[in-house]
Specification:
Blueprint lengths: L3 H5 L4 H5 L1 H26 L4 H29 L6 H25 L19 H16 L3 H7 L1 H8 L2 H14 L8 H28 L3 H29 L9 H15 L19 E7 L1 E2 L7 E7 L2 E6 L11 E6 L7 H5 L2 E5 L7 E4 L11 E6 L4 E7 L2
Antiparallel strand pairs: 1-3, 2-9, 3-4, 4-7, 5-6, 5-8, 8-9
Helix pairs in contact: 3-4, 3-5, 4-5, 4-9, 4-10, 5-6, 6-9, 7-8, 9-11, 10-11
Length: 398
């Protein structure tokens, strides 16, 4: 039974005392997320709603948690920079966006199937494992970031619980720097990287100042141990990252988000299919037929460009790539006739008609459509990476 003192503490007493600061920081964090989303959706990968949501939630949440973790050591180093009263609001919003990130990942990438998160148990091969460790800690921080929770748990227990944010932050850094490093090479990623580096510098500097003044007490010993563990994890992660990538083998059963990353790692390590020509197909150069529909290839997971036509000749239908067609060579690329005008999922490919493996990465090439196919039901051509079960690129037909 709760004591009378605990019952007197209202749930959001701290927020009520600092309501103006809470409103201000809530507004600023919302603006930060909105800017992150706009950049992801309109600039980085235009039109990708699910990916833009989950990336903007992750980047905003991790950046805000970094801001919150920078406030404590900043005060330790310079007493005049005492912003501790703002730390809770910033941290709560950071945890909120991380929770939204997790929900969006489950909805958009894993179709609410948590088993798919554990496609590999080596966290250096599957950095989602690091996130699985950090996420429950961040959620517990979110739930207990109230004066009521402090009174209910007692300050010492509450403080011990909230110190878990430090190991969680270490593995969170490993998660977002290993999961898809290419997506950090832009202004939003640079903001997160810069914030993270600043936090680490401030934390280490404050730690050194503390032990110079007070010696290596219990709290300092824990902090020192965390630094050793963190340094060991980072060293292991980046020492063996390339080795792990080199062991990648094509696997069509990986979740799509994981498969895209592994497909790109495979491309870097081993390239594409050596049987695919790198020059135009001589036998197809003089093919002439009546054009029915036309379109231009659009980037999905790899940059592909050039025209594609749906043509008719002697009662037969053909997909014809234009002279300007070009795409990188990938593992087991196959041509599909697809129904959706913007096919971007595995289901779009499953609903389509497989034509033939890609003949060449450049130039004109012709693919016959099987007899009996009602071409009026199909509105696009898709290049699909069958080895990893990932749609590569597509062209809407009009």
């Amino acid at each position: 039974m709760m004591s009378q003192e605990v019952r007197k503490v209202r749930l959001f007493a701290g927020a009520r005392r600092n309501i103006r600061a809470v409103i201000l920081h809530s507004t600023l964090t919302t603006i930060l997320w909105a800017l992150q989303f706009v950049y992801q959706y309109y600039a980085l990968i235009p039109g990708e709603l699910g990916g833009s949501m989950l990336r903007s939630f992750a980047l905003t949440g991790a950046t805000l948690i970094g801001f919150a973790l920078a406030i404590g050591p900043l005060r330790t180093l310079h007493q005049k920079y005492n912003y501790v009263r703002y730390r809770r609001t910033i941290g709560v919003w950071g945890f909120t966006f991380i929770i939204l990130h997790f929900v969006s990942v489950m909805v958009f990438l894993f179709e609410l199937n948590p088993i798919d998160l554990f496609w590999h148990y080596n966290p250096f091969a599957n950095p989602i494992i690091f996130a699985v460790f950090a996420y429950p800690i961040f959620v517990s921080m979110w739930i207990t970031s109230t004066d009521w929770a402090v009174a209910r748990l007692g300050f010492r227990k509450w403080k011990s619980l909230h110190r878990l944010v430090f190991p969680a932050y270490i593995v969170a850094i490993l998660h977002f720097t290993l999961i898809n490093p290419e997506l950090l090479l832009n202004p939003t990623g640079y903001l997160l990287i810069g914030t993270t580096i600043l936090v680490l510098i401030l934390q280490v500097s404050a730690f050194l100042k503390t032990i110079r003044g007070k010696g290596l007490g219990r709290s300092a010993a824990i902090g020192f141990s965390l630094m050793i563990v963190g340094a060991s994890l980072f060293t292991t992660a980046y020492r063996f990252r390339d080795a792990v990538a080199g062991d990648v083998e094509p696997n069509p059963n990986l979740p799509t988000s994981v498969a895209v990353t592994k497909m790109k790692e495979f491309m870097k390590q081993k390239g594409g299919n050596p049987e695919v020509a790198g020059a135009p197909i001589e036998a197809d150069k003089n093919f002439v037929a009546a054009m029915m529909k036309t379109g231009m290839f659009e980037r999905l997971n790899y940059m592909t460009s050039g025209a594609v036509m749906l043509e008719n000749k002697d009662g037969k239908h053909f997909v014809v790539f234009g002279d300007d067609f070009t795409t990188p060579n990938g593992p087991d690329l196959v041509i599909y006739l697809t129904k959706n005008t913007g096919p971007s999922t595995r289901q779009d490919v499953r609903d389509g008609i497989q034509l033939a493996p890609l003949k060449s990465t450049t130039g004109k090439q012709v693919y016959e459509i099987p007899e009996g196919v009602d071409v009026s039901q199909f509105n696009s051509v898709t290049i699909h990476c069958r080895a990893f079960n990932v749609p590569w690129s597509y062209a809407p037909l009009k």
